[in-house]
Design a protein that fits this description.
TIM Barrel; 12% strand; 8 helices; single chain; 5-stranded parallel beta sheet; 248 residues
Length: 248
């Protein structure tokens, strides 16, 4: 629908749709970059096989991200990759909690409980749990179970600017392309989030902006031949029959 003009239709046991012109067409050509959400390594492999970005929600620490990233790019550049779209989006993104403050302890005090609640809520809906619509209060359950207990959790990017810089550098070294920061969770205050984003933009981001275009160019050149071969393995854009007519 993004790339065909008009969309040539679909006819399968599970989906039937006649030819139709889908408008507006996207600004990006042939279409926007495609991603798929991943929480398991099997899904990460699937993303690589389909030539789309892997968006991991597993709160992976850098040392645990290295192997999935390597497997993703190994599959993406192999004969297994047959793109789902008409372009390949080679990218590995990781979602992690973030709050930046000059004092690491203040950062933890302001946001650690919120990050823990997000993980608690995700597990509630992802795993088999009892849930009573309109009556189950997740935050109450969270505070009851976590009260006065030391709960193991990856801290993510919660800390001072230098600590966040070192953490991001570790992600960069193992091949993670993007970090998506979870800042609004639990009872984390809006004012604290805004202060965190401002400090991060001033003290951390500039360290990674320098040389970014050159790094992306090198990556594109390295993956270019494999991407070209992958696109040759998928069917081209179809052309709808010129005599198809909607006659009402």
């Amino acid at each position: 629908m993004f790339a065909e003009d008009p969309f040539a239709g679909w006819d399968s046991p599970y989906l039937k749709m006649p030819p139709r012109n889908i408008v507006p067409k996207p600004l990006q050509k042939p279409h926007p970059p495609l991603w798929t959400a991943c929480s398991r390594r099997e899904t990460i492999k699937y993303a690589a096989q389909r030539g789309v970005g892997a968006l991991s929600f597993a709160f992976l620490e850098p040392e645990f991200a290295a192997r999935p990233v390597a497997e993703y790019y190994r599959t993406l550049t192999s004969q297994e990759c047959v793109p789902a779209g008409f372009s390949v989006n080679p990218g590995f993104a990781v979602v992690i909690p973030m709050l930046c403050h000059a004092d690491r302890q203040v950062a933890l005090d302001r946001s650690l409980a919120g990050a823990q609640f997000f993980e608690f809520a995700k597990e509630h809906y992802y795993r088999p749990k009892r849930h009573y619509p309109g009556r189950t209060n997740l935050y109450r359950s969270f505070t009851r179970q976590y009260a006065d207990k030391e709960q193991p959790i990856a801290l993510g990017a919660i800390g001072a600017p230098d600590q966040l810089t070192a953490l991001i550098q570790n992600y960069e070294q193992v091949g993670v392309d993007q970090l998506i920061f979870l800042t609004q969770a639990g009872l984390t205050r809006h004012q604290d989030i805004c202060e965190s984003l401002d400090l991060f933009a001033r003290a951390v981001m500039p360290r990674f902006a320098e040389g970014r275009e050159e790094k992306e160019k090198i990556k594109a050149e390295r993956l270019g031949p494999a991407i070209e071969q992958a696109l040759a393995r998928r069917s081209p854009v179809r052309t709808a029959s010129s005599d198809y007519c909607i006659d009402v």
